[in-house]
From TrEMBL:
Marked site (Important for catalysis) residue numbers: D159
Active site: K119
Keywords from the UniProt entry: NAD, Nucleotide-binding, Oxidoreductase
Top-level taxon: Bacteria
Residues annotated as binding substrate: K83, K107, S362
Protein name, as recorded: Glutamate dehydrogenase
GO molecular function terms attached to this record: glutamate dehydrogenase (NAD+) activity; nucleotide binding
Entry's family note: Belongs to the Glu/Leu/Phe/Val dehydrogenases family.
Biological process annotations from GO: L-glutamate catabolic process
Lineage: Bacteria, Pseudomonadati, Pseudomonadota, Betaproteobacteria, Burkholderiales
Residue ranges of every copy of the Glutamate/phenylalanine/leucine/valine/L-tryptophan dehydrogenase C-terminal domain listed in the record: 196-426
Chain sites annotated for binding NAD(+): T203, N234
Residues in the signal sequence: none
Length: 429
């Protein structure tokens, strides 16, 4: 008689401190009852397909040798190649990279992009190193993870403290290793190296499109609707501009430099120009500086956290006075706050749907690289908006069917798609 398998944590994890990976596992546990016969495969989602930890040695400008710890985690590739960014940060951990790879699997499947989830990181503070040293780290990292990446295996992208220049170095390093120019090995590249038009604004545009769809469901007129935005970079700034152009009033904005408010609506183009000139929203024209803590108490129709994770917690969730919360950032709402806001009737568009515009246009970039045929920006935006609207509608229907939040619905949709692929493919050998 065969024995029932024992499900245990991978040996490289500390069971007493799972970190972000523990939050991801909790989310999978919540949706397991909705997976029906596919639940027999759920352990697939709780174990990354592949975890690689590498040493990244480089010679510093002063001639000494430094070693940095790097990771690449491929969570699931049942639906397609791994996809996920690479972050350079001194506090990167394996648990964090594992969780981010799992959330990439969910995000890609929730919006029906044919990728699996992956993520990478190097434990380095790039601000303490010269550009030449950072370049060496980027190139050496690609050399070390080369055995498991490729345009049909795993496609990196920018993340925290990495950008188009970083991707250019990585693309060049990979191309040198394989002996042919391979633009499809990364996305988020400069346009001159095969990057896609529309990529910079894609995440913010996706936030706006899903917000418009939610407004239809909730009977909110965009004209005159009050919008509050935390973070005013590519995501928050783009979303604010699009809401402003639609007739909404962006009444408050917060970033690392300060918090500004105008009850009649900020002049968003002027604020964007001020940020470009000064680096932050503090001191923007025709705006009142207010206490940062009061930001979360401003009454509004749309609240867009587009800065950092864990900004909305059990401590401030009760104070929020919004109708629709659109997560432009990754993980801005803690699970405890999520429950509090749902009980208050706040409609939350989770990060795995709301900010998936970036990975969607990354998919477009990858497809364009394979054909060496590039689309104009209007076509890219049309296709992005169509996919984001469909993703919102599909997941909203699942939420209504099961009487659950949109976040839970997104996990149900994503896990179902991933495990259906796993089930149909079967196990080999």
């Amino acid at each position: 008689m065969s024995q029932q398998p024992t499900h245990s944590l991978p040996s490289y994890l500390n069971a007493d401190d799972l970190g972000p990976w523990g939050i991801y596992l909790e989310q999978i546990e919540r949706v397991t009852p909705y997976l029906g016969s596919l639940s027999k495969w759920v352990e697939t989602l709780k174990r990354p397909k592949r975890v690689l930890m590498v040493d990244v040695p480089i010679e510093l400008d002063n001639g000494t040798i430094a070693h940095f710890e790097g990771y690449r985690v491929q969570h699931n590739t049942s639906r397609g190649p791994g996809k996920g960014g690479i972050r350079f940060h001194q506090d990167v951990t394996l648990s964090e990279v594992m969780a981010l790879s799992g959330w990439m699997s969910i995000k890609c499947a929730a919006v029906n992009v044919p990728f699996g989830g992956a993520k990478g990181g190097i434990r380095i503070n790039p601000h303490e190193h010269s550009q030449r040293e950072v370049e060496r780290v980027a190139r050496r990292y690609i050399h070390e993870v080369r055995p498991i990446i490729g345009p049909n295996q795993d496609i990196p992208a920018p993340d925290v403290n990495t950008n188009g220049q970083t991707m250019a170095w990585m693309m060049d390093a990979y191309s040198q290793l394989v002996g042919t120019t391979t633009p499809g090995i990364v996305t988020g590249k400069p346009i001159s190296l095969g990057g896609s038009l529309g990529r910079v604004e894609a995440t913010g545009r996706g936030v706006f499109v899903t917000g418009v769809e939610a407004a239809k469901d909730k009977g909110i007129d965009l004209n005159g609707a009050r919008v509050v935005v935390q973070g005013f970079g590519n995501v928050g700034g783009t979303a604010a501009r699009l809401f402003h152009e639609s007739g909404s009033k962006v009444i408050a904005v917060q970033d690392h430099t300060g918090t500004i408010f105008n009850e009649q609506g900020l002049d968003v183009p002027a604020v964007l120009q001020h940020v470009a000139d000064t680096g932050g929203v503090a001191g923007a024209p025709n705006a009142e500086a207010i206490d940062p803590a009061s930001f979360w108490q401003i009454e509004n129709e749309f609240l867009i956290p587009a800065a950092l994770e864990n900004q909305i917690t059990a401590d401030n969730a009760h104070s929020l006075r919004t109708k629709i919360l659109i997560e432009g950032a990754n993980g801005p709402t803690t699970p405890e706050a999520d429950d509090i806001l749902s009980d208050k009737g706040v409609w939350i568009i989770p990060d795995v749907i709301a900010n998936a515009g970036g990975v969607t246009v990354s998919y477009f970039e990858w497809a364009q690289n394979f054909s060496s045929y590039f689309w104009d920006e209007d076509l890219i935006n049309q296709r992005l908006e169509a996919m984001m609207r469909a993703a919102y509608r599909d997941n909203a229907a699942v939420a209504a069917q099961h009487h659950v939040s949109l976040r839970t619905a997104a996990f149900i949709t994503a896990c179902t798609r991933i495990l259906e692929a796993r089930n149909i493919r079967g196990l080999y050998p």
